Amino acid sequence: MRVFPWGFWLLCVASAPARGDSGSKARSCAEVRQLYGAKGFSLSGVPQAEISGEHLRICPQGYTCCTSEMEENFANKSRSEFEAMMKEAGRSVQATLTAQHRSFDSYFQDLLNKSEKALSDAFPSLYGELYTQNAKVFKDLYSELRRYYRSSNINLEEALNEFWTRLLERLFKLLNPQYHITDEYLDCMVKHAEQHKPFGEVPRDLKVKATRAFIAARSYAQGFLVGSDVVKKVSQVSLSHECTRAIMKLMYCPHCRGMSSVKPCNNYCLNVVKGCLANQADLSTEWKYLMDSLIGVADRIDGPYNVDTVIGTIHMRIAEAISNLQENKDSVTSKVFQGCGNLKISTRGSSSEDKKRRGKVTLEAKSSAQALEMLVLDAKGNLTALKTYWISLPSSLCSKKVMASSASDDKCWNGMTKGSYLPEVMGDGLANQINNPEVEVDITKPDMTIRQQIMQLKIMTNRLGNANIGNDVDFQDTSDDMSGSGSGDSCPDDVCGKRLSKSPSTRQPETHAIPKQSGHGVHGAGSRSLPSASLLLLLSVAAIAAQHLWR
What we know:
6 strands
């Protein structure tokens, strides 16, 4: 008869719900009530002491301080807080890239402005009517250069050729006022200009150097903006329902279990965040290629393409060209007569202006090479630090935002109770989450917004690769009109970073037109081909079709 009461007691103990710690009394819910109120929720209906947790749908169903309503509110709060963490981390990267763009843009625009001002200040006294009657030609040149740099759809070589053509026509008339020169005659003269070289080698030399410098400069500036825009768009991607549950369990379930002081296990946190940010991690490969490509172009800007010298001395090269024409006026005129026929003498007398303005012109340019060197060094340091942003984001969020416990802690929140966390940490990216123990991830349905941004990174890297070898591509707005999927192309040797070590060719750079869909680049030289325009377009169409199928 003594056995029955003892056995009955054991049965009662075994069937009682487990508590977070020892003790027969229900624990106070004061800490949870304080936290719940601090989050802006009403304390009406919040338990004073632990209650049975059979009603819970996310947290473990032991004794709890949370009602169903509290669990739902905490889940929504955890979702908004985690998304805020993502946006805050993204804003830091955006600020870095935007600051780099602003610094370089200010420097480059200042170079152009100083060159134009030096020209407008010096040329009236140097050339008199040769300048004053043709000031618009020079002003138009600088306007076209600025438009090109700002990514307008302008062919830079054609703009430079047009400048030299217009300048030659006007100067030839002013230098030969005794002749009656018709438009047809000027057309003939222009056709022979390449053969006669009235301005010497300056037009050809400036075209090669300026084209490469401008291509590199505008691609470099655009790269920072594209990187910042990608981060902004990706940071706004909403969490999935499965991720919201996992984040709630990570951040607020320990409070419901009366373990407010217990931090989440680090590896547990990593698995949750890696599962939630699986698609974002797939940006990493193309993101690293973009950072490497920007570093490679930065080396060109401060090295072989010598932006400071080329852009800052445009006015000096123009002055040199005009002097060449003045000094070789008779020889040039004779060659023109041979090719286009003699001219009739005009009734106007010869101007003495030309005689006053002859002579070798010497202009000075203030170098800002040191400022450029500092800009490039700062940019390369920041770009190097950002290479691993996407794959290091889970660790950063767990350590700095979620405040996870140390990796070796065996008294941390493991998702069920206080103890060790045994599962292994998953790899990075969508494909590696197939066995994630904390977040249910459908690896067959990649996020299309992020796939579109992966494509934007590929397109920008392609442009930078072309800029690195002196090839021009059309620039269009890359914000919203491209889509695609995949993230695995290798980075060509001639695109990424310092692997580009050969000196640039001095041949005239090719200009390739592309369709108006944003971001279609051209092939660059290297160990493997860059994506073609047709391939990129095909990828984008396939991705859009896949998106509809998945829906």
